[in-house]
Amino acid sequence: MSFSSLGISKHFIKALDELKIVKPSPVQEQSIPFLIGKGTDFIAQAPTGTGKTAAYGLPLLEKIDPKSSKVQALILTPTRELGQQVAKQLFKFTKYSEKIFTEAVYGGAKIETQISALKRPTQIIVATPGRLVDLIQKNAVDLSFVKVVVLDEADEMLTLGFKNELTKILKHTTGKTHTWLFSATMPPEIKTIIKNYLAADAFRVTIGTDRLNKNIAHQYTLTMDEDKLDTLAKFLKNMGEKRGMIFCKTKAAAKTLAKQLKVKNMATDAIHGDLLQKERDKIMRAFKNESLQFLIATDIAARGIDVRDLAFVAHYELPDQVEFYIHRSGRTARAGNKGLSLIFLTKGDMKQLKFIQEKLQIGIDKVVIS
Ligand code: AMP
After folding, report:
1. Threshold 0.85, pTM exceeds
2. Contact by Cβ (8 Å): 298, 326
3. Strand partners, 126
4. For 111-122, how does the pLDDT look when each residue is reduced to its tens digit (9 = 90+)?
């Protein structure tokens, strides 16, 4: 199977080749022909890191009329990071095509700058729901020519509390546009959105029935509370040059762990809800340019992060929700690579470990870190 046989135009394929995106991933194989062809309402349940941006992005680009400067497509993402990454990918895909302008808008940045940016020709808007509602209220966007609305990581948008904004936007666009929804999980709130705002005959695609990327090895190591930090440090040392993320449940735990690991001379820092956007961007830049080897994060702060070549995800604290375990693990083993998801387990977590194994139908193997 090739991108050309899925119906993608030559000028996009040339750019994809340069990005080493040559063989369509399963979600791309299943989505692209429908989205390019009929392109009506569409629902994909696919884990993160499986190539969903290209799965909807390429058909979307095929549908844009570069001659018209009107906004023709809208992509909603839960976070600024994911929004920026999506915009960046679309920009790369169009390297050899006629110019198609994408603008990413999100909260935490000056709205005035975004309003003036939107006055230039813009064919695709990538937005976080809250900021888009603000822009609609200020009459700063004209959505009357939008043909497609994409909801990317729809489940995360709801987890982050964007339900009202999302329904406001969908009320505004339903009937006039086609809606393409991507979600790693299908909790009841997503099903309600689908029932209320998508056509009953929406085309459905499900990738990976166990909802987890098959290239992830799941392991746990049993430690005592007082040995946990040393066990983690040992594991990180064993990783050599390999890069990864370390998850904590709370901001306080993430901050403390960052301090403790820095004392041990580890190239690490933490992102959590107490950081200013500027500080967060600085840490993300350092992690992406590899001056930080390990990134500590809370579940909420980690939303939408896509850093290439992460060899592992460490759960320093096990999450309460199984969905969080899925999202955390999805940070590794991206783009066909193998990855490790390792839990630092204390005795009290045993029940939760069993619950995760049963719910996700995965084997989590015990390992000893020495
Ligand atoms: P996504 O799920 O869209 O966040 O994509 C995850 C990563 O996989 C991104 O860095 C993409 O550039 C990359 N990618 C997407 N599709 C393919 C493909 N067919 N082959 C190789 N890499 C891909």
Report:
1. no
2. no
3. 75, 104
4. 999 999 999 999
